[in-house]
Amino acid sequence: MAQAASKTCEICVSGPGHNYCEQCNQLFCDGCKISHLRTNMSKSHTFLSGPNINPEVKLYCKEHDENFIYYCMECNTPICKICVIKKHKSHDFAEIRESTEGIKAEVKMAIEMKMKNLQSKIADIDQGSNQYQADVQKVIQSIREEGKRLKEMIDQKVEGLINTVKEKDTRNVQTLQSVRNELKAALDKAKEQQKFYQDTQGIKDTSKLLQKLKQMKSQIDQIQEIQIPIMPSVKYAIKTVAEGEIGKLFGELTFGEIVKKEENPKPQKNVSVTPTAKQYRYRCLGCKTEITSEKSPDLKSPYQ
Q1: If DSSP states are collapsed to H, E and C, what string results for the chain?
Q2: pTM to 2 decimals?
Q3: Percent of the chain topping pLDDT 70
Q4: pLDDT digit string, tens, across residues 184-220
Protein backbone atom coordinates (compact mmCIF):
# COMPACT_ATOMS: atom_id res chain seq x y z
CA MET A 1 0.00 0.00 0.00
CA ALA A 2 1.57 3.31 -1.11
CA GLN A 3 1.98 6.08 1.39
CA ALA A 4 0.96 9.71 0.84
CA ALA A 5 4.53 10.92 1.29
CA SER A 6 5.28 9.86 -2.30
CA LYS A 7 2.30 11.79 -3.77
CA THR A 8 1.93 15.41 -4.82
CA CYS A 9 -0.81 17.96 -4.34
CA GLU A 10 -3.81 17.13 -6.52
CA ILE A 11 -4.67 20.86 -6.92
CA CYS A 12 -1.44 22.55 -7.98
CA VAL A 13 0.27 19.26 -8.94
CA SER A 14 3.61 20.60 -7.77
CA GLY A 15 3.86 20.67 -3.98
CA PRO A 16 3.95 17.63 -1.67
CA GLY A 17 0.49 16.38 -0.76
CA HIS A 18 0.87 16.22 3.01
CA ASN A 19 -2.75 17.21 3.74
CA TYR A 20 -5.72 14.96 3.01
CA CYS A 21 -9.22 16.50 2.86
CA GLU A 22 -11.68 14.01 4.33
CA GLN A 23 -14.65 15.58 2.55
CA CYS A 24 -13.09 16.02 -0.91
CA ASN A 25 -10.94 12.87 -0.82
CA GLN A 26 -8.00 14.83 -2.23
CA LEU A 27 -4.41 15.58 -1.28
CA PHE A 28 -3.43 19.22 -0.72
CA CYS A 29 -0.14 20.97 -0.22
CA ASP A 30 0.09 23.50 2.60
CA GLY A 31 -0.70 26.47 0.35
CA CYS A 32 -3.68 24.84 -1.36
CA LYS A 33 -4.99 23.71 2.00
CA ILE A 34 -5.09 27.32 3.23
CA SER A 35 -6.89 28.44 0.08
CA HIS A 36 -9.35 25.53 0.39
CA LEU A 37 -10.27 26.47 3.95
CA ARG A 38 -10.84 30.12 2.95
CA THR A 39 -13.60 29.13 0.52
CA ASN A 40 -17.11 29.34 1.94
CA MET A 41 -18.15 25.95 0.61
CA SER A 42 -15.16 24.15 2.12
CA LYS A 43 -14.16 26.21 5.12
CA SER A 44 -15.55 23.54 7.48
CA HIS A 45 -13.69 20.66 5.83
CA THR A 46 -11.36 18.57 7.95
CA PHE A 47 -7.84 17.44 7.08
CA LEU A 48 -5.50 14.63 7.99
CA SER A 49 -2.00 16.10 7.92
CA GLY A 50 1.48 14.64 8.10
CA PRO A 51 4.22 13.13 5.97
CA ASN A 52 2.96 9.55 6.50
CA ILE A 53 -0.81 9.91 6.05
CA ASN A 54 -2.52 7.16 4.09
CA PRO A 55 -5.77 8.35 2.42
CA GLU A 56 -6.70 4.72 1.72
CA VAL A 57 -7.19 4.16 5.41
CA LYS A 58 -10.35 6.19 5.86
CA LEU A 59 -13.67 6.01 7.70
CA TYR A 60 -15.96 4.77 4.96
CA CYS A 61 -19.35 3.00 4.95
CA LYS A 62 -18.84 -0.09 2.77
CA GLU A 63 -22.54 -0.95 2.82
CA HIS A 64 -23.72 2.32 1.23
CA ASP A 65 -20.49 3.51 -0.39
CA GLU A 66 -20.66 6.78 1.55
CA ASN A 67 -18.39 8.63 3.92
CA PHE A 68 -19.10 8.42 7.61
CA ILE A 69 -20.40 11.86 8.60
CA TYR A 70 -22.32 11.06 11.80
CA TYR A 71 -21.76 9.10 14.96
CA CYS A 72 -24.61 7.11 16.57
CA MET A 73 -24.63 7.74 20.33
CA GLU A 74 -26.69 4.65 21.12
CA CYS A 75 -24.81 2.16 18.94
CA ASN A 76 -21.39 3.78 19.51
CA THR A 77 -20.50 3.51 15.83
CA PRO A 78 -19.86 5.90 12.89
CA ILE A 79 -22.63 6.03 10.29
CA CYS A 80 -23.25 7.57 6.90
CA LYS A 81 -26.28 9.65 5.86
CA ILE A 82 -28.07 6.57 4.49
CA CYS A 83 -27.40 4.61 7.70
CA VAL A 84 -29.18 7.40 9.56
CA ILE A 85 -32.41 6.83 7.66
CA LYS A 86 -32.34 3.05 7.29
CA LYS A 87 -30.93 1.73 10.58
CA HIS A 88 -30.55 4.60 13.04
CA LYS A 89 -33.68 6.67 12.33
CA SER A 90 -34.82 6.83 15.97
CA HIS A 91 -31.33 7.02 17.48
CA ASP A 92 -29.50 10.01 18.86
CA PHE A 93 -26.52 10.94 16.67
CA ALA A 94 -24.20 13.84 15.99
CA GLU A 95 -21.63 14.91 13.42
CA ILE A 96 -18.67 12.59 13.60
CA ARG A 97 -16.11 15.38 13.96
CA GLU A 98 -18.11 16.95 16.76
CA SER A 99 -18.55 13.54 18.39
CA THR A 100 -14.83 12.89 18.10
CA GLU A 101 -14.06 16.21 19.77
CA GLY A 102 -16.65 15.47 22.43
CA ILE A 103 -15.28 12.00 23.06
CA LYS A 104 -11.74 13.40 23.15
CA ALA A 105 -12.85 15.88 25.79
CA GLU A 106 -14.63 13.10 27.71
CA VAL A 107 -11.58 10.84 27.50
CA LYS A 108 -9.31 13.66 28.62
CA MET A 109 -11.64 14.50 31.50
CA ALA A 110 -11.99 10.80 32.39
CA ILE A 111 -8.21 10.40 32.46
CA GLU A 112 -7.79 13.52 34.58
CA MET A 113 -10.56 12.44 36.97
CA LYS A 114 -9.15 8.92 37.15
CA MET A 115 -5.67 10.26 37.89
CA LYS A 116 -7.09 12.70 40.45
CA ASN A 117 -9.05 9.92 42.16
CA LEU A 118 -6.08 7.57 42.14
CA GLN A 119 -3.76 10.27 43.46
CA SER A 120 -6.31 11.08 46.17
CA LYS A 121 -6.55 7.41 47.11
CA ILE A 122 -2.76 7.08 47.17
CA ALA A 123 -2.62 10.14 49.43
CA ASP A 124 -5.26 8.55 51.67
CA ILE A 125 -3.25 5.31 51.74
CA ASP A 126 -0.08 7.21 52.64
CA GLN A 127 -1.85 9.22 55.32
CA GLY A 128 -3.58 6.13 56.73
CA SER A 129 -0.33 4.15 56.61
CA ASN A 130 1.56 6.89 58.44
CA GLN A 131 -1.20 7.10 61.07
CA TYR A 132 -1.19 3.31 61.39
CA GLN A 133 2.58 3.22 61.86
CA ALA A 134 2.27 5.93 64.51
CA ASP A 135 -0.39 3.84 66.26
CA VAL A 136 1.85 0.76 66.06
CA GLN A 137 4.73 2.61 67.72
CA LYS A 138 2.35 3.99 70.36
CA VAL A 139 1.00 0.50 71.12
CA ILE A 140 4.51 -0.96 71.31
CA GLN A 141 5.53 1.80 73.72
CA SER A 142 2.43 1.17 75.85
CA ILE A 143 3.16 -2.57 75.99
CA ARG A 144 6.76 -1.92 77.01
CA GLU A 145 5.70 0.57 79.69
CA GLU A 146 3.13 -1.87 81.07
CA GLY A 147 5.68 -4.68 80.97
CA LYS A 148 8.16 -2.46 82.80
CA ARG A 149 5.53 -1.59 85.40
CA LEU A 150 4.68 -5.26 85.92
CA LYS A 151 8.38 -6.11 86.20
CA GLU A 152 8.79 -3.43 88.83
CA MET A 153 5.80 -4.82 90.72
CA ILE A 154 7.28 -8.33 90.51
CA ASP A 155 10.69 -7.07 91.65
CA GLN A 156 9.03 -5.29 94.58
CA LYS A 157 7.15 -8.46 95.47
CA VAL A 158 10.35 -10.52 95.27
CA GLU A 159 12.20 -8.06 97.49
CA GLY A 160 9.28 -8.02 99.91
CA LEU A 161 9.23 -11.81 100.21
CA ILE A 162 13.00 -11.96 100.66
CA ASN A 163 12.91 -9.23 103.33
CA THR A 164 10.15 -11.10 105.16
CA VAL A 165 12.25 -14.27 105.14
CA LYS A 166 15.32 -12.39 106.37
CA GLU A 167 13.44 -10.58 109.14
CA LYS A 168 11.86 -13.81 110.35
CA ASP A 169 15.20 -15.55 110.15
CA THR A 170 16.83 -12.86 112.30
CA ARG A 171 14.17 -13.17 115.03
CA ASN A 172 14.31 -16.96 115.02
CA VAL A 173 18.11 -17.01 115.14
CA GLN A 174 18.04 -14.59 118.07
CA THR A 175 15.52 -16.78 119.93
CA LEU A 176 17.54 -19.95 119.30
CA GLN A 177 20.72 -18.20 120.34
CA SER A 178 19.08 -17.04 123.57
CA VAL A 179 17.96 -20.60 124.40
CA ARG A 180 21.39 -21.89 123.57
CA ASN A 181 23.02 -19.34 125.84
CA GLU A 182 20.76 -20.42 128.75
CA LEU A 183 21.54 -24.06 128.10
CA LYS A 184 25.25 -23.24 127.87
CA ALA A 185 25.13 -21.45 131.23
CA ALA A 186 23.40 -24.45 132.82
CA LEU A 187 25.99 -26.73 131.26
CA ASP A 188 28.80 -24.63 132.75
CA LYS A 189 27.24 -24.96 136.20
CA ALA A 190 26.93 -28.70 135.73
CA LYS A 191 30.60 -28.87 134.72
CA GLU A 192 31.50 -26.87 137.83
CA GLN A 193 29.66 -29.38 140.03
CA GLN A 194 31.42 -32.17 138.17
CA LYS A 195 34.76 -30.62 139.12
CA PHE A 196 33.65 -30.35 142.75
CA TYR A 197 32.62 -34.00 142.63
CA GLN A 198 36.03 -35.01 141.38
CA ASP A 199 37.65 -33.02 144.18
CA THR A 200 35.64 -35.00 146.76
CA GLN A 201 37.41 -38.16 145.79
CA GLY A 202 40.31 -37.26 148.08
CA ILE A 203 38.23 -36.56 151.24
CA LYS A 204 38.73 -39.31 153.80
CA ASP A 205 36.40 -37.88 156.39
CA THR A 206 33.06 -39.54 155.86
CA SER A 207 31.04 -36.82 157.64
CA LYS A 208 32.70 -34.08 155.66
CA LEU A 209 32.23 -36.00 152.41
CA LEU A 210 28.54 -36.51 153.10
CA GLN A 211 28.11 -32.84 153.77
CA LYS A 212 29.85 -31.94 150.46
CA LEU A 213 27.78 -34.39 148.46
CA LYS A 214 24.55 -32.99 149.90
CA GLN A 215 25.63 -29.47 148.97
CA MET A 216 26.53 -30.60 145.46
CA LYS A 217 23.20 -32.37 145.06
CA SER A 218 21.38 -29.19 146.14
CA GLN A 219 23.36 -27.15 143.59
CA ILE A 220 22.68 -29.65 140.82
CA ASP A 221 18.94 -29.61 141.57
CA GLN A 222 18.96 -25.81 141.27
CA ILE A 223 20.38 -25.95 137.73
CA GLN A 224 17.37 -25.36 135.41
CA GLU A 225 17.25 -27.52 132.31
CA ILE A 226 14.91 -25.55 130.01
CA GLN A 227 12.95 -27.28 127.25
CA ILE A 228 14.18 -27.05 123.69
CA PRO A 229 11.68 -25.04 121.64
CA ILE A 230 10.15 -26.37 118.45
CA MET A 231 12.64 -25.66 115.70
CA PRO A 232 11.51 -23.00 113.20
CA SER A 233 11.08 -23.94 109.55
CA VAL A 234 10.57 -22.14 106.27
CA LYS A 235 9.37 -23.32 102.89
CA TYR A 236 8.34 -21.72 99.62
CA ALA A 237 5.63 -23.31 97.53
CA ILE A 238 6.18 -22.50 93.87
CA LYS A 239 2.95 -21.50 92.16
CA THR A 240 2.52 -22.65 88.60
CA VAL A 241 1.17 -19.77 86.52
CA ALA A 242 -0.39 -20.53 83.15
CA GLU A 243 0.39 -18.30 80.17
CA GLY A 244 -3.25 -17.26 79.99
CA GLU A 245 -3.12 -15.99 83.56
CA ILE A 246 -0.08 -13.90 82.72
CA GLY A 247 -1.99 -12.46 79.77
CA LYS A 248 -4.71 -11.28 82.15
CA LEU A 249 -2.20 -8.92 83.71
CA PHE A 250 -1.89 -7.01 80.44
CA GLY A 251 -4.33 -4.90 78.48
CA GLU A 252 -6.30 -6.19 75.50
CA LEU A 253 -4.81 -5.90 72.02
CA THR A 254 -7.24 -5.34 69.11
CA PHE A 255 -6.66 -4.86 65.38
CA GLY A 256 -8.82 -3.20 62.74
CA GLU A 257 -8.46 -5.38 59.65
CA ILE A 258 -8.13 -4.01 56.12
CA VAL A 259 -11.45 -4.17 54.29
CA LYS A 260 -11.45 -3.39 50.58
CA LYS A 261 -14.33 -1.20 49.48
CA GLU A 262 -16.46 -2.28 46.53
CA GLU A 263 -15.41 -0.15 43.57
CA ASN A 264 -18.55 -0.80 41.48
CA PRO A 265 -21.51 -1.28 43.84
CA LYS A 266 -24.48 -3.24 42.57
CA PRO A 267 -27.37 -1.12 41.28
CA GLN A 268 -30.22 -0.59 43.69
CA LYS A 269 -33.48 -2.38 43.08
CA ASN A 270 -36.82 -0.68 42.56
CA VAL A 271 -35.17 2.44 41.12
CA SER A 272 -36.90 3.83 38.05
CA VAL A 273 -35.26 5.99 35.40
CA THR A 274 -37.35 8.53 33.50
CA PRO A 275 -36.38 8.56 29.78
CA THR A 276 -35.73 11.89 28.13
CA ALA A 277 -36.68 12.93 24.61
CA LYS A 278 -34.07 12.20 21.92
CA GLN A 279 -32.67 15.02 19.89
CA TYR A 280 -31.28 14.91 16.34
CA ARG A 281 -28.80 17.30 14.77
CA TYR A 282 -29.11 18.04 11.02
CA ARG A 283 -27.06 20.04 8.52
CA CYS A 284 -28.37 21.53 5.30
CA LEU A 285 -26.48 20.05 2.35
CA GLY A 286 -26.63 23.37 0.53
CA CYS A 287 -25.97 26.13 3.04
CA LYS A 288 -24.42 23.92 5.76
CA THR A 289 -26.81 25.37 8.36
CA GLU A 290 -27.26 23.13 11.43
CA ILE A 291 -30.54 22.61 13.32
CA THR A 292 -31.60 20.45 16.30
CA SER A 293 -34.94 18.63 16.46
CA GLU A 294 -36.67 15.79 18.32
CA LYS A 295 -38.10 14.49 15.01
CA SER A 296 -36.41 11.66 13.14
CA PRO A 297 -34.80 12.30 9.72
CA ASP A 298 -37.00 12.65 6.62
CA LEU A 299 -35.73 11.70 3.18
CA LYS A 300 -37.61 14.64 1.59
CA SER A 301 -36.02 17.19 3.92
CA PRO A 302 -33.03 19.18 2.67
CA TYR A 303 -31.43 18.63 6.10
CA GLN A 304 -29.46 15.43 6.46
Answers
A1: CCCHHHCECCCCCCCECCEEECCCCEEECHHHHHHHHHCHHHCCCCEEECCCCCCCCCCEECCCCEECCEEECCCCEEECHHHHHHCCCCCCEEEHHHHHHHHHHHHHHHHHHHHHHHHHHHHHHHHHHHHHHHHHHHHHHHHHHHHHHHHHHHHHHHHHHHHHHHHHHHHHHHHHHHHHHHHHHHHHHHHHHHHHHHHHHHCCCHHHHHHHHHHHHHHHHHCCCCCCCCCCCCCCCCCCCCHHHHHCCCCCCCCCCCCCCCCCCCCCCCCCCCCCCCCEEEEECCCCCEEEECCCCCCCCCEC
A2: 0.47
A3: 79
A4: 999 999 999 899 888 888 888 888 889 889 998 998 9
